[in-house]
Automatic annotation (TrEMBL):
Signal peptide: none annotated. Pfam families: GerE, Response_reg. PANTHER family: TRANSCRIPTIONAL REGULATORY PROTEIN NARL-RELATED, TWO-COMPONENT RESPONSE REGULATOR. Transmembrane segments: none annotated. This is Response regulator transcription factor. It comes from the Bacteria. Residues 148-213 form the HTH luxR-type domain. Gene3D superfamilies: 3.40.50.2300. The lineage of its organism: Bacteria, Bacillati, Actinomycetota, Actinomycetes, Kitasatosporales. Residues 3-121 form the Response regulatory domain. PROSITE patterns: HTH_LUXR_2, RESPONSE_REGULATORY. The modification 4-aspartylphosphate is found at D54. SUPFAM superfamilies: C-terminal effector domain of the bipartite response regulators, CheY-like.
Length: 221
């Protein structure tokens, strides 16, 4: 059973998400929170699998709450998916760099929301349905952080190749077809690359691919 915590200051939004999620045989809503402070407390208490976190909330915004959660080693297995009203939200990229596993626009189709929840639990989060890879590249291009060239020196040539393919949005199965290897081999390469770079998940690996210059804005594979 996938346990989800809903963090949003609008009760109607939480009610809508709860009705959808609780109707699934493999998902349950473990708790709700109306602000960031409450979200952090509830996550610490309940250790849900996934947090659906609104970016704009009182007391503590979703971005700061996400940082608190992802920086806590005890909560490493908790995945955070940011919720935003607008696809061009200026905080989205910063949220992903802060440890969020992806983001969704609030008016996304129900099946996309369910797919996203299941995907982050499976470790296959590829950022947001409804927000293109080109948009992610634009956020990465604006980053003020220094390039991670030194970190890439730890990778083998094949791992760099795999990281670049993750960066342009390919799944493990697509990477396997591109490199003519098995999906298991592709997954192993991705996992080793994440470990070497200290990436929390695939979303952060995508960010690192752009920030290091391994993938450049506009490269869509």
């Amino acid at each position: 059973m996938i346990r989800v915590l809903l963090a949003d200051d609008q009760s109607l939004v939480r009610a809508g998400f709860r009705a959808l999620l609780d109707a699934q045989p493999d998902i349950e809503v473990a708790a709700e929170a109306a602000d960031g402070e409450q979200a952090v407390r509830r996550v610490s208490e309940l250790r849900p699998d996934v947090v659906l976190m609104d970016i704009r909330m009182p007391a503590l915004d979703g971005l700061a709450a996400t940082r608190r959660i992802t920086e806590d080693p005890a909560l490493r297995d908790v995945k955070v998916v940011m919720l935003t009203t607008f696809e061009l939200d200026e905080y989205v990229f910063e949220a992903i760099r802060s440890g969020a596993s992806g983001f969704l626009v609030k008016d996304t189709e129900p099946e996309e929301l369910l797919r996203a929840v299941r995907a982050v639990v499976a470790g296959d989060a590829l950022l947001s349905p409804g927000v293109t890879r080109r948009l992610i590249a634009e956020f990465a291009a604006r980053s003020k952080e220094p390039a991670a060239a030194d970190a890439l020196a730890r990778l083998t040539e094949r791992e760099r190749e795999v990281m670049a393919l993750v960066g342009i949005g390919l799944s493990n199965e697509e990477i396997a077809r591109r490199l003519v290897v098995s999906p298991l081999t592709a997954k192993t390469h991705v996992s080793r690359t994440m470990v070497k770079l200290g990436a929390r998940d695939r979303a952060q690996l995508v960010v690192l691919a752009y920030e290091s210059g391994l993938v450049r804005p506009g490269w869509l594979g």
